[in-house]
Amino acid sequence: MTEPRTLFAKLWDAHVVCEAADGRALLFIDRHLIHDGSFHSFNRLREKGLPVANPGLCLATPDHYAPTTSRSADTVDDPAIRRVLNEFDINVNEFAVPVLALADPRQGIVHVIGPEQGFTLPGTTLVCGDSHTSTHGALGALAFGIGASEVAHVLATQCTWQKRPQTMCIRIDGLLPPGVYAKDLALTIIATIGTAGAVGCVVEYSGSTVSALSIEERCTLCNMTIEAGARAGLIAPDETTFAYLRNKPLAPKQELWHRAVEYWRTLKTDDDAHFDRTVSVQANSLQPMVTWGTSPEQAIPLSGRVPHPGEATSDEEANGMLHAMQYMGLVAGQPIATVDIDQVFIGSCANSRLEDLRVAAEVIQGIGGKVKLPTLVSPGSTQVKLKAEAEGIADIFIAAGVQWHESGCSMCVGMNGDRMGPGKRCISTSNRNFAGRQGRDSRTHLVSPATAAATAMLGHLAAPPAAKGAG
After folding, report:
1. Which residue segment(s) compose the domain that 71 sits in?
2. Which H helix or E strand runs over 142?
3. 208 within domain boundaries
4. Of 129, 163, 197, which marks where a domain is finished?
């Protein structure tokens, strides 16, 4: 009999081509997502005179630099951004990489369009030159971000050298309370274990709470896994996964579908399999969360106060807290709900899917009236945008005075020009609150879409009314 194995071990072992003397393994990569920031990698191929090894296993789309006020690079004022977008078109055409171009109705953020199109499948290895590739683990794929040189290597060989990670199980049980969503769950976990709590690990999420999550909510949870220092996040595929993928454009069809599902059902951790570390979380007592500092681990309930450095467990942590408070313009003991807010952003690969927009619209409609803060919504894909418009979600946003934009990474990272001014404070559904992330000297507080919508409507940081939806 074979030794019990984790889901990660099954996926890793199935993709090892060979192993090096230094312990690294050469992994075959089933899926490669490419965005408009990958131009350095194509330049390396040109320098070496190499083709893309298997274009059919790639899928490209512009997202980081994509304008959200139009669908044409020609409308972009910044020549540097316009150059990147034009170079992206040149690269994918020259190397015959399948592309969902800016004007394509399937375009979107790579980590939204992968699952949406059925390009992301259980049991596959998937990489992208972006750290939040961990998102795709929500469907049972071993997915992780790689650097520019690794992107070039995968393009040229369809393989990548990797050191085998350790494993961590985060088991979550119980019902999420009303007004608490997957984003709140993710921020709670990161605040508990820290941004280094899962370093060197692939995290597998399990438990009754996880089983009850939709695929969109699972994407949020796996997306944020990287913020705990993990290499990847994983959730075993189940009936929810299969129902989501059925009839997706790039998913298997007919007999291949039945054979695929039969295999996917085997992709789960065996009883008594060993994890290097296990963490347990009870969902019943969770509250809506918000970050107060410049790291995702610096998060507290909306009802809480900015912590005092004296509560830190080390001098290094205390100094980090002091630096964060100074940058964010906060003082220890200050109720976080009293912080003045300048802007609200709903979008990013963490929280821009259709369910995210549904719950935000539900909160806005429930409160009624106009937004009291400038609010920008950028859907995660053009498909999400079109469906939101067909359902009337966009009408709710627009009637409330929300800026309804095209799809792209937008204000999550500001590469396309959607930025905040110095010293401005934004309530954001994105995944990182690093200093200057949304513009030079900008201040970012991470929340769920429901909290973002409530804040926009009430004009101050506010917990959402009880509502059902994605997080």
Report:
1. 7-163
2. strand 142-145
3. no
4. 163
131-165 pLDDT, tens digit per residue, is 999 999 999 999 999 999 999 999 999 999 999 99
Orientation of helix 354-367 relative to helix 382-391, angle to 10°: 40
Q: Taking 60 as the threshold, does the pLDDT of residue 470 lie above it?
A: no
How, if at all, do strands 58-60 and 125-128 pair?
A: unpaired
Domain count, the chain: 2
Q: Who's near 451: CB < 8 A, 6+ residues apart?
A: 184, 288, 290, 302, 427, 461, 462, 463, 464
Query: For residues 304 and 168, what is the distance between their CA atoms, to the nearest angstrom?
Result: 29
Q: In this structure, is residue 195 part of a structural domain?
A: no
Q: How far apart are CA 118 and CA 57, in angstroms?
A: 13
Looking at the structure, tell me whether residues 159 and 294 fall in a common domain.
no
Which pLDDT value is given to residue 1? 59
Whether residue 388 contacts residue 379, with contact meaning beta carbons closer than 8 Å, is answered with yes
Phi-psi region of 373 (alpha: psi -120 to 50; beta: other; left: phi over 0): beta
Closest CA to 150 of 161, 164, 141: 161
Q: Look at residue 26 and tell me whether its pLDDT is greater than 60.
A: yes
What is residue 2's predicted lDDT score, i.e. its pLDDT?
82
More confident residue, 469 or 466: 466
Q: CA–CA separation, 93 vs 391, rounded Å?
A: 35
Residue 27 within any structural domain of the chain: yes
| Residues 305 and 159 both lie in one domain | no
The arithmetic mean of pLDDT across residues 13-34, rounded, is 97
Query: Has residue 2 been placed in a domain?
Result: no
The secondary structure of 167-202, three-state, reads EEEEEEECCCCCCCCHHHHHHHHHHHHCCCCCCCEE
Looking at 124, 141, 163, the residue that finishes a domain is 163
Are both 157 and 14 inside the same structural domain? yes
Question: Can you give the CATH number for the domain in which 74 is found?
Answer: 3.30.499.10
Token representation of residue 136: 């795709």
Mean pLDDT of the chain: 96
Place of tokens 């971000």: 145
pLDDT, tens digit, 9 for 90 and up, residues 433-447: 999 999 999 999 999
- Tens digits of residue pLDDT in 291-337: 999 999 999 999 999 999 999 999 999 999 999 999 999 999 999 99
Interval 255-280 mean pLDDT: 98
Q: How far apart (Å, rounded) are the C-alpha atoms in residues 105 and 245?
A: 19
